[in-house]
Amino acid sequence: MVKLQKSSEPVANVITTLLKPLPQNRIKTITPDRSKELSKHGQITEQFKAKFYFPNLHAPWQREACENTNGLIR
After folding, report:
1. Pairing of β 51-52 and β 29-30
2. Which of 31, 32, 49, 63 gives 20 to 30 Å between its CA and that of 72?
3. Could you tell me the pTM of the whole model?
């Protein structure tokens, strides 16, 4: 059984790995959900010069849209 790691370092590494092959001038923004696993978003911002936009705490419709988008991407 594979143990999923939900800490910030592995998540940042996976995001970096997925974004590296893309043209750097095309990566402008990243809109994730509000999870603690994304606490290393500063590293990604620094490397790709892309801004992170997190949904507002008291706006559940924003998180729902993000989850729907994530599902479509997967």
Report:
1. parallel
2. 49
3. 0.67
